[in-house]
Amino acid sequence: MALDQGIVRQLAEHLENAELNRQPVTKITDDYPDMDWDDAYAIQYGIRRRKEARGIGTAGLKMGLTSQAKMRQMGVSEPVYGFLPASGSYGDGADIDSGAFIHPRVEAEVAVMTRAELSGPGCNVGQVLAAVDFVTAAVEIIDSRYENFRFDLKSVIADNTSAAGFVCGSVLRDAHELDLPALGVVLEKNGEIVETGAGAAVLGHPAASVAMLANMLAARGEVIPAGTFIMTGGITAAVAVEKGDTINVRYQDLGKVSFRMI
Ligand code: 0L1
Ligand code: MG
């Protein structure tokens, strides 16, 4: 690690305060250009510990930047992972307070719940499918704590990959009954179709994203425990939302997810 522990703690507090005060900040690599990948994840884990100390648990894990389009846009070849604070968990049909965010965007995803531990290195799609308890629809709300979503990869890892919330569907399906790469999604905002996509946008197969998560965690000596909820990454591009917007996402074989920003 390039940063000392005190700076890592300060940066975790700085980014969490930006979230809590809805006050965007400049990307942290502007002031700490030498920070490395371990520092970036250490800051993210620092935010997680700060929330846990206040009784906000972790509802699951997420993969981000998993589509070729998003990776190209960011000029990176590696997806990133983060955690899902339980405070951002919403059910289908929710009214969501837009005041809780800075500049929220939503993206349609497929989520899985595991029933067995997954560990890397070498974790693969077959092992993931064997370990998945169920698949469900989920829409992520991302909300970068950086001004105008302007960041680089290390800064966005430190900022918990822009995680801010997620809205879960209520249809649970067995992974073996679904053709996940071919699974189609239609995202409507205020009754108009604004994005469409298929599961293959997520690293070719949403289960490949989970395998990659297990392999990335292995580099830190961690596993995906049984009973972990995982958002596998955006199938569609992220769509900006604001107060008054209604989102309805229709998923092939997985029902729909709807919510209102109030
Ligand atoms: O979940 C995601 O793919 C978002 C990762 C962070 C980049 C962004 O804020 O768009
Ligand atoms: Mg996402």
Q: Your description of this structure?
A:
- This protein is of the alpha+beta class and 262 residues long.
- It has a single domain (56-261), classed as Fumarylacetoacetase-like, C-terminal domain (Fumarylacetoacetate hydrolase, domain 2).
- Helix content is 25%, strand content 31%.
- The strands form two sheets. Strands 1, 2, 3, 5, 6, 7, 10 and 11 form an eight-stranded mixed β-sheet that branches. Strands 4-13-12-8-9 form a five-stranded mixed β-sheet, with no helix packed on it.
- Helix 1 crosses helix 2 (37-53) and helix 4 (125-131) crosses helix 6.
- It starts with a helix and ends with a strand.
- Bound molecules: hexanedioic acid and magnesium ion (MG).
- Magnesium ion (MG) is lined by residues 62, 64, 107, 109, 140, 142, 231, 233-234.
Concise synopsis of the structure shown:
The chain has helices at residues 5-20, 37-53, 68-74, 125-131, 153-158, 206-218, and strands at 58-64, 80-85, 89-91, 94-96, 105-114, 132-142, 163-168, 184-189, 192-198, 229-234, 239-240, 246-251, 255-261.
What does the largest sheet look like? 8 strands, mixed
**What coarse outline follows from CA principal-axis ratios?**
globular
Fraction in beta strands: 25-35%
| Shape-level CATH architecture | Alpha-Beta Complex
| Helical amount | 25-40%
DSSP summary, beta strand count: 13
One letter per element, helices H and strands E, the order comes to HHEHEEEEHEHEEEHEEEE
Count of discrete domains: 1
Question: With helices defined by DSSP (H or I, 4 residues minimum), what is the helix count?
Answer: 6
CATH superfamily: Fumarylacetoacetase-like, C-terminal domain
